[in-house]
Amino acid sequence: MIEKPPAGAPPPYPPPAALERVRWIGPRLLVTSGEPAGIGPDLCLDLARRSFACDLTVIADPALLEARAARLGLRVRLELREPGSAPRRHQPGTLGVWPTAAAANPACGRLDPANAPYVLETIAEGTRACLAGHYDALVTAPVHKGVINDAGIPFSGHTEYIAALTGGDPVMMLAAPGLRVALATTHLPLAEVSRALTGERLETVLRVLHRDLIDRFAIPEPRILVCGLNPHAGEGGHLGREEIEVMEPVLHALRQRGWRLRGPLPADTLFLPKNLQEADAVLAMYHDQGLPVLKYLGFGRAVNITLGLPIIRTSVDHGTALDLAGTGRADPSSLEAAVATAIGLATGTGAAERT
User: Fold this and answer.
1) Residues annotated as binding site for a divalent metal cation?
2) Which PANTHER family match (predicted)?
3) For residue 77, what is the enclosing H or E element?
4) Which residues are annotated as a binding site for substrate?
């Protein structure tokens, strides 16, 4: 069931004084529904069954959500909202929807490049609204990079796309209970990682990670473990010299400023429990160096957090799972954790705790 805003509803984007009067509602969150052929719409509909201390609005095609709810046998009242409409505390059974029309009728499990612009527009709309200060955080459901590129649109990932809209120095970090892993490089072929890992890049990533652990996670003196790039962290230069020529000078200079950094350390032993107990975050040099460990530890409960942006953005730790779309078997845990983390980061409550 879709409900339209009542006549005479407040104009979009209420002034700051009005927002102050409704602060008890909680932060305002926008959730993008992701690839329409995947499980993103299913997960967004599941949010309607939960209770969250926030105003929660999903950016999606209402017809898509209604059809998917019928397929899943869910009774959800879709409440259409204009961008920036008056805040309302999220209530189970109801889902606020910022309507954005899909280009083609999505079918579960069947990718259609015609819907790539729709997917990107939901991300762009949410990003712009948060950047303007009308919403407090953006939470993103999974997208399919391949079908977006098949549509002729260069796209390497959410992180890079949002950064292009907002500016800043984006750093990808995933967090699971007991572990945070940030990445010095993100979606690159392995053959390109060494060239991309310059001293300037490493220092920028470390500065963003260090600052956001302090400012957003309320950790006054972050302890960071830094992975080496090569096996055995280069074995004294016998297995590669990046640790000696690129990494060590940067780490030494930052330690001189009082930063609590250990590394470069061999990645095959860095993740031992005795080491992680003494760390607030790990910095891995490339995607598949750190994330397999984190996903083994907490897949389905992990949250993707983009650091270094002027907005708060969290996301799920998994992909579109096309084979699960519309089956009712998709696990909503990661999206729920992403929403909860966004609330914590936006309010400052619980931000110092492990996600």
Assistant:
1) 187, 232, 287
2) 4-HYDROXYTHREONINE-4-PHOSPHATE DEHYDROGENASE
3) strand 77-80
4) 158-159, 295, 304, 313
Same-domain pairing of 319 and 293: no
Phi then psi for 140, rounded to 5 degrees? -120, 135
Q: Which domain holds residue 256?
A: 169-308
Q: Detail the residues annotated as belonging to a binding site.
A: 158-159, 187, 232, 287, 295, 304, 313
174 and 305 Cβ atoms separated by less than 8 Å: yes
Helix, strand, coil percentages in the chain from 3-state DSSP, rounded to 5: 40, 20, 40
SS3 331: coil
Q: Where are the alpha helices (DSSP H) in the chain?
A: 16-21, 40-47, 62-72, 116-131, 145-150, 158-166, 190-196, 199-215, 242, 248-255, 267-270, 273-276, 287-298, 333-347
CA distance 157 to 150: 14
DSSP letters, 3-64, are EPPPTTPPPSS--HHHHHHTGGG--EEEEE---TTTTHHHHHHHHTTS--SSEEEEEE-HHH
pTM for this predicted structure: 0.86
pLDDT at 10: 40
* Structure confidence by residue, pLDDT tens digits, 233-248: 999 999 999 999 999 9
Residue with tokens 């929807």: 97
DSSP conformation class of 310: S
Q: What is the pLDDT of residues 186-228, one digit of tens each?
A: 888 999 999 999 999 999 999 999 999 999 998 999 999 999 9
Whether residue 176 sits in one domain with residue 125: no
Nearest CA among 285, 311, 290 for reference residue 302: 290
Contacts for 183 with CB less than 8 Å, ≥ 6 apart? 171, 172, 173, 205, 283, 284, 285, 286, 287, 290, 291
Residues 336 and 257 in one domain: no
CATH number at residue 156: 3.40.718.10
* Rounded-to-integer distance, Cα 82 and Cα 207, Å: 38
Co-location of 135 and 49 in the same domain = yes
Other CB atoms within a 10 A radius of the CB of residue 313 amount to 27
